[in-house]
Amino acid sequence: MRREKIQPRSGWQAKLEKIGFDFYVLDGKTYWNENACYAFSSDEIDELEATTDELHKLALQAVEHIVSNRLWARMHIPPAWSEYIESVWRRSDPTIYGRFDLAFDGTGPPKLLEYNADTPTALYEAAVVQWYWLKDVKPDADQFNSIHERLIQAWRGVLARLPPEGTVHFARFEESPEDLATSEYLRDTALQAGLAGEPLPVSQIGWNGSRFTDPDEMPIQVLSKLYPWEWMVREEFGVHVLTDTTAFIEPAWKMLLSNKMLLPILWEGFPGHRNLLPAFGTEHADLHGSFVKKPIFGREGHNVTISAPGVFDTASGDYGSEGYVWQAYQPLPAFDGNHAVVGSWVIEGKAAGIGMREDERRITHNSSRFVPHYFKPGGSE
Amino acid sequence: MSTGIKLVLMGVAGAAVLYSCAPGAGIGALPYLWFLPNPFYRPPLVANCGPGVPPASCTPTQQSGSGSATGGGYSGRGTTSQPSSTTSGSQAAPAPSQRGGFGSTGATGSS
Known about the structure:
- The complex is a heterodimer of chains A (381) and B (111).
- With 381 residues, chain A is of the alpha+beta class.
- Helices cover 29% and strands 26% of the residues of chain A.
- In chain A, the strands form 6 sheets. In chain A, strands 5, 6, 18, 19, 20 and 21 form a 6-stranded antiparallel beta sheet that branches. Chain A has a 5-stranded antiparallel beta sheet with strand order 13-17-14-15-16.
- Chain B is mainly alpha-helical and 111 residues long.
- The longest helix of chain B is centred in the N-terminal third of the chain and has 19 residues.
- At the A-B interface, α2, α4, α7, β9 and α8 of A face β1 of B.
C-alpha cells in the first residue's frame, strides 16, 4: 500500500460535475482529491475483502448476543424498543449497506475502528466517482469496487419481496450535499433495479394516526432513511415506528452496529481477534494509557479524543451525553502527513469495495478528503 | 344496502374503493395502497403444532437472525423473547398527517 502523487485530470472539476458530483469542495476545503491516489497490491485487496467479510460475520454474532441477552440498557436503547428490534432481526428485514472504517497500512492485519452500519455516506464517491477516475487515469489497473452492481442486486432482492405496487421512499436532509448525493444515488440504484422510488425530506415524513405518510398523504410502505436510528428513537415520531406498519432500510437492528458500544462487546466475544482492537466501557488498564475515547452515539469524529504517549488530539461536538467507549489507539498510516483510513463497504452482507479518506489530523471527520485508489491484478507488488 | 353489507360483499379491495370514494376520505387515486402492510412483516412461525396438539399449546419457533449469526465467541446466551404481535396496517380512514416529528436532532445523518 502506498500513496502516489499524480497530476489531476485536465478539467477534472467539469468531469466530476458531468457525473453529478458537485461537492468536491466541502466547507471551503478540497474534499475530492485527485492530486494523489492510493495503490494496493491484489494481496492487500484480498486481505481487506476477507477482513470485511469476517468482521461483518462477527458483527452479526454480536447482534445475536445483544438481542438474546437483552443488553438494551448497556446499548442505551430504550426498553420499549427491544421487542421491535428483536422482531426485525429475527425476520431478516433486508439490509442494503454499511461501511467499516479500518486502520490498515499494508503490513499488519486491518483493524476495526468502527462500523457505520446505519447511515454511511461517501457512497457515490466510492461507487461511481472513483470508478470514472480509474477509467481515465489508470485504465489498465483495477479497483476494489463492485459497489454499484451489488447495490442494484440488493435492491432486486427488496423488489422481490414487495407487492407490484410497492414503492420505496428515500428520506434525507436535502440541504446536506453529502446526504443528498448518497440518498439520490441509492434511489438511482433502486430505480435501476426496477423499484419505484420517491424522494422525501426527513422533515416531511408524516404520521396520520395510523401510518407514516409522504407529502401527498400516501402511506410509506418502505422507508430508506439517511437519518440515524438513535435520533429517531428519541424524537416525537419514534414511537410510531413500533407499530411496524412501515419497513425501514436500514432495519432497526442496525442501530446495534452503529453504536460504539459494539466495540467492547466484540472484544469481549472475540478477545485477541486479529482484526479487533481492545475496547472497553471504561478507561481500562489493558489500554496502557494509549486509547481513543469515542462517544457511544458519536458521528463523523465529533467528541473523539486520542490520547497516547506523545499524541493528543480531540474534536469538539455535541455528543457524549450517553457515555463513551475506550478503544486501544491504533495509529493510522501517515503518508506525507496524511492520515489514511480505509472505508470498506458491505453490500447485502458481503464486502463490495473500498473508499480511501485522508486528513492531516488523526481524527477522520466529515470533510476529510476522499482519494481514489487502484490495484494491479496479479499478487503482491 | 348498508355499508356493512357492502363491505362483506366487496371484500377488502372493494372496501378500499368504497372508503376512498366517501366524502372526506382524503385519499386519491390509489386507495388500495392503504391496505398494503409492511411487506417484511411476518407473524410468528408456529412449530410444534402437530396432530393432536391443541393450538393453545403451540409454541413459536426460534427464528434465526438476519445473518448466519450462530456459533462464535459468546457464551451464556439468554433466552429470547418472542417477536411481538404487531399491526399489519390500519384500515381506518386516514386523517391529515402531522409532519416534523423526525428531523429535530441534527442537520445531517451522515457517518
